[in-house]
Specification:
With 472 residues, this protein is mostly helical. The protein has helices at residues 11-17, 30-39, 44-57, 61-85, 92-99, 102-134, 140-157, 159-188, 199-202, 211-225, 231-235, 242-271, 277-281, 284-291, 297-329, 346-365, 370-403, 417-434, 437-471.
Amino acid sequence: MSRTSTRSPQGSQQAVQNGSEPVLSHGLKQRHLSMIALGGVIGAGLFVGSGVGIAAAGPAIVLLFMGTGALVMLIMRMLGEMSAARPSTGSFSVHAEEEIGSWAGTTSGWMYWLMLCAGVAAEATAAGTIMHTWVSFIPAYGWVAIFMVFFCASNLTAVKNFGEFEFWFSAIKVTMIVAFLVLGVLGILGVFGSAPGTSHLTGHGGFFPTGAAGLAAGLLTTISGFAGLETVTIAAAESDEPSRNVARAVRTAVWRIAVFYIGSMAVVVTLVPWNDPKVASAGPYVTVLDRLGIPAAGTIMQIVVLVALLSAMNANIYGSSRMAYSLVSRGQGPRFLGKVTRGVPAAAVLASCVFGFAAVIAGIVWPTTVFAWLLNIAGCSVLVVWSIVCLTQLKMRRRLEREAPELLSVRMWGFPYLTWLAFAAILGVFAVMAANADGRQQLAGTAVVVAALAGAGHLKQRRDDRRADVTA
């Protein structure tokens, strides 16, 4: 057992919040968490970014989404098990600190914060570009500023505002996905014209038209599409019944990953040729809707993509601010970020928004250097976080089985074998990245940041151990 495993259920974060210290509010309901879980797995990466994966891997993108979807299901199940047993604003970062050590909590927490803030910048930039095409007298960066100020203000007022925005954003996205799947199935059956059969699956170079290289390129795209879904386990700590609510949200999210992602990709590659230039340029959904003759398909999808981008911005500002607050409350960051106003970590919200807007400026001024470096690290961060989640769950599950088995309301399937399988799969993705030049560049930049964070966390852990020995 680790030295820190004897802490209270909420760890050092809870200790900071005891007594006169302010605590976060509990304004989220079950309906909010269910939609947050869905919103986390339905983003602009699915609506637009998946087209890049299809162009890279061809029809085999379905198999890639099946593989990465299975990995994500396992990660979500692990997160659900740990968060239902020990709900905490810092989620996996708190659990990693308690089970492995401060270095693991610091690394996973700040890597996740960096990933979410970089996501805010990328999503705000894309949303600003869409709005500029509709309202051209306001420049794209002007729309970015409007969105940043709006979501920053909404996240500063009350957590229920975040929950309401995500509820309705996610409802729109889910409705669109369901409608697309229904129309797609009808198209496959020949309702909108001649049925395509398997011509697009086996023609145009076959099911694996680009070989192993294409699969490797498509793999990285599919992985990045799932980043951010962990926010539901962070949000659960601010709900009325954290343990029960996160358990329900995770259970519903798992099977919907399969339906929405795998189903959508199967519809796309069945209805249109994978090498149609529009798949990558306009997006797979627009291409399919045009193929089916749906009026104003491009405009409809632009609206849906805008909603997806704004939803992701909102969720990333929320998730990054709560993670920063949790880290600071455990002594792993600047103390001023721990300021809470009316149940909201106001300083952490502002810091996350400021960093995100600074990244937007970097994208304008240094698009191929600073901003590219930031996005490369952010793209690899989720793999670092997932690997630490696996190692944490292995230790935490065994300890809970010994000390408090009644807390295991959600259990990881096939433990410990599926946990080890997930960890091995993540290592396999790292190996695939190391096999190409772009992947090696991502890994090199990420390794530097991970080493710096892990080193800082290790120094803090040694300092805490010395203090504990002195007071013992």
